[in-house]
Amino acid sequence: MERACLECGNKVIGRIDKKFCNDQCRNTYNNKVNPANKNLIRNINNKLRKNYRILDSYTLKDGKTKTTRMRLIDKGFDFDFITNLYTTKKGTTYYFLYDLGYLPLDNDFYMIVKRE
User: Fold this and answer.
1) Tell me: the pLDDT tens digits for 64-89?
2) Which residue, among 112, 109, 113, has the nearest Cα to 70 in the 3D structure?
3) Beta partners for 105?
4) Which residues, at least 6 apart from 81, have a Cβ–Cβ distance to it below 8 Å?
5) Counting CB atoms within 10 angstroms of each CB, which of 18, 27, 39, 91 has the fewest?
């Protein structure tokens, strides 16, 4: 059975599940399917991933560690991008990026925690 490239219609040679004749056709097709209006979502996800990588770069002892606001900012952390908030019964609010979070402390210190 002969297959046709989803982008240009040329014959596709190779694996049975191959859909495109080359990388250019694959990229062109995917750029049409995921247009520029989805750049906002892509940019937000990139910022969330960057924030997560920064928090994950800290070595946690007993599931937590401390750092300063300036150290986080120097690494490129953006405090405007989180995935969720967690408020304890005492009213303390933790800011989370997936399973890693931080708690603002006094004197611009932050406690980084991992949710179990």
Assistant:
1) 999 999 999 999 999 999 999 999 99
2) 109
3) none
4) 44, 47, 48, 51, 97
5) 91
